[in-house]
Amino acid sequence: MARTHGRGGAGPRKTNKKGQVKGSGGVRRRGLEGKGATPKAEDRVYHKAHKRKLERQRRDSGRHEQDKAELVVGRNPVVECLHAKVPATSLYLVQGTRSDERLTEAVAIANGRNIPIVEVPRHEMDLMTGNGMHQGIGLQIPPFKYADVEDLVGDVAATGENGMFVVLDNITDPRNLGAVIRSVAAFGGHGVVIPERRSASVTAVAWRTSAGTAARLPVARATNLTRTLKMFQQNGYQVVGLDAGGEHTLDTYDGGADKVVIVIGSEGKGISRLVRETCDVIMSIPMTAWVESLNASVAAGAVLSEFARQRRLAD
């Protein structure tokens, strides 16, 4: 009896077809289907707009951190802030704190300025400050309200005056910032511009050092100092950078007639490269040979005083 193979005794089926005999599994059909709406440019990770979005989010996050309310603690600092008329929303006192002359003075000033006085348990003040070094008193200061640079330029243009601004680069000490604000106010300047990042901001320390002038002189923050300086130039301002080895000195430069922006860097770093390259003029301050540099606020005072003198002579 013959042996059979496979089902029903039939041998393997032969075929002459070449190539793929199975279907594509729906791949070609899915490939023809629509992929939905095109994502926004800022949502595409490879697009420049996405990078700009991330940078904006980081910047906004940093601004949020800087703009939080500040709590000044300690009897002397609180009394100094109150005397300097630093704006405050509340005076906190720890329940049961022993009174002395400074605490009594702080309460009297707060009452006179209608600042709410809030008594809190000691453990709550410890949590608010992160330690127990508050001496039983704290003054809450709201975030400083910064001006817009372009608005300041427009406001000065509306008055018909020749504007005089100070731009600070690499200044991280709030005491320096406060002293510059005070000098700008004293010599008829129109405002101070600081970077949003890596810069001192208007804190209670800057308020105190400014001796209250921060309440009246506008301070603006710039996202990019180079772009801000170019904006000033487009509005007719001469940008003068203070740095050693400049083509002008304070003796040879006439800052009395023009709209001027004075750029001041830190005592150690000076002004940054891109900012320096954007300046129209680099100017130095004549000094005794063995003195290497001046503190930023001292340099600002010297230049502003001379420019104010030149403006008085020009009038």
Automatic annotation (TrEMBL):
Provide the GO biological process annotations. Answer: methylation; RNA processing
What segment(s) does the record annotate as region Disordered?
1-70
MF term (GO), any? RNA binding
Span of domain RNA 2-O ribose methyltransferase substrate binding: 71-147
- Note whether Methyltransferase occurs among the keywords: yes
A Pfam family of the record is SpoU_sub_bind
SUPFAM superfamilies xrefs: alpha/beta knot, L30e-like
Where does the record place Basic residues bias?
47-56
Q: Which SMART domains match?
A: SpoU_sub_bind
Q: Which Gene3D superfamilies match?
A: 3.30.1330.30, 3.40.1280.10
UniProt keywords (A-Z) are: Methyltransferase, Transferase
KW Transferase (keyword) present: yes
Which cellular component terms (GO) are annotated to the entry?
Answer: cytosol
Q: Where is the composition biased (Basic and acidic residues)?
A: 57-70
The record's comment on protein family reads: Belongs to the class IV-like SAM-binding methyltransferase superfamily. RNA methyltransferase TrmH family.
Instruction: Identify the PANTHER family for this entry.
Output: 23S RRNA (GUANOSINE-2'-O-)-METHYLTRANSFERASE RLMB
Q: Which NCBIfam families match?
A: rRNA_methyl_3 (TIGR00186)
Q: What protein name is recorded for this chain?
A: 23S rRNA (Guanosine(2251)-2'-O)-methyltransferase RlmB
- Species whose genome carries this gene: Corynebacterium incognita
What gene, per UniProt, encodes this protein?
rlmB
